[in-house]
């Protein structure tokens, strides 16, 4: 899992109710405030675009074509996430899940479907194989922290 | 045949890291600077092979070489490694940044 280059998963505990977190994930005005500009609607099948800065490292254009795939209020939101300007570019799925935890919410965001045959991914896999990500990057973090 | 005008610094870093022995050497040096002989002993390799690997790492800017008396001592260079880390996990960084933004947004609008 640590070396699986086809997906990334990040989670965070937020000291807010699942209702508030859900609103922040699904209200276009709220999304503009912390996420990105976009014409999102919480309706399965709705197609929309998000706009952000390009990611030079991966050749990503910054305009994301999305379609709402799944929706379960205050629990799950899934949309497709593809590079709108590059048909051969990123074609992935983003899934948000909310878990009530004590008085707050654990938010998990997972992006999956990175092409394992993409040149970038192959290189990343070669370099990250053999525990590179889990071991070497951790040592790098502590090395950098000492400076 | 297409000509590449120049080999970029990033290309050199990846070419250097494509070799597992060089990744292991780098891993060793993350534990602290080492003289070339100690690196050779650790990998059970002839000095010339070790020197060749170190030269590739040096050309990629991943390590530096200093002379201490009769010894050449190698140490890692943090900057290209930091860039490498960003390159290897840009999406992780992206989502982490967004979750930090979400936390800030929820705090600002709390009770509002």
What does this structure look like?
The complex is a heterodimer of chains A (about 150) and B (about 110). Chain A is an alpha+beta fold and about 150 residues long. In chain A, helix 1 crosses helix 2. The longest helix of chain A is centred in the C-terminal third of the chain and has 14 residues. Chain A is globular. The two termini of chain A are about 30 Å apart. The model of chain A has no long low-confidence stretch (mean pLDDT about 80). By secondary structure, chain B is an alpha+beta fold. Helices cover about 60% and strands about 10% of the residues of chain B. Chain B contains 6 helices and 3 strands. In chain B, helix 1 packs antiparallel against helix 4 and helix 3 crosses helix 4. The N terminus of chain B is likely disordered. The chains are: A alpha+beta (about 150), B alpha+beta (about 110). Chains A and B meet through strand 1, helix 1, helix 2, strand 7 and helix 3 of A and helix 2, helix 5 and helix 6 of B.
Output the helix-strand order of chain B: HHEHHEEHH
Structural class estimated from helices and strands of chain B: alpha+beta
Low-confidence stretches of chain A: none
Tell me which protein chains meet in the greatest interface and how many residues each side has: A-B, 35 and 36 residues
* Major sheet: arrangement of strands of chain A: 1-7-6-5-4-3-2
Number of strands of chain A: 7
Total helical elements of chain A = 4
Give descriptors for this structure.
heterodimer; A: 147 residues; alpha+beta; seven-stranded antiparallel sheet; 4 helices; globular; B: 112 residues; three-stranded antiparallel sheet; 62% helix
């Amino acid at each position: 899992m640590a070396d699986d280059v086809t997906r990334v998963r990040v989670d965070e505990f937020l000291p807010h109710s699942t209702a508030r977190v859900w609103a922040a994930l699904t209200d276009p005005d709220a999304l503009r405030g912390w996420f990105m500009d976009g014409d999102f609607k919480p309706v399965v099948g709705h197609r929309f675009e998000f706009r952000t800065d390009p990611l030079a490292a991966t050749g990503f254009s910054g305009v994301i074509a999305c379609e709402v795939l799944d929706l379960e209020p205050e629990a799950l939101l899934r949309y497709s996430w593809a590079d709108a300007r590059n048909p051969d570019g990123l074609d992935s799925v983003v899934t948000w899940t909310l878990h009530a935890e004590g008085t707050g919410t654990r938010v998990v965001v997972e992006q999956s479907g990175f092409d394992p045959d993409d040149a970038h991914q192959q290189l990343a896999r070669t370099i990250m194989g053999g525990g590179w990500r889990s071991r070497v990057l951790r040592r790098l973090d502590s090395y950098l922290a000492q400076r | 045949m297409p000509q590449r005008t120049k080999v970029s610094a990033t290309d050199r870093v990846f070419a250097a890291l494509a070799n597992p022995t060089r990744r292991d050497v780098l891993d060793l040096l993350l534990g602290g600077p080492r003289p070339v002989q100690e690196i050779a002993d650790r990998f059970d390799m002839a000095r010339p092979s070790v020197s060749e690997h170190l030269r590739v790492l040096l050309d990629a800017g991943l390590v530096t070489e200093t002379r201490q008396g009769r010894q050449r001592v190698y140490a890692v260079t943090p900057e290209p490694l930091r860039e490498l880390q960003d390159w290897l996990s840009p999406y992780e960084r992206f989502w982490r940044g967004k979750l930090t933004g979400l936390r800030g947004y929820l705090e600002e609008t709390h009770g509002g």
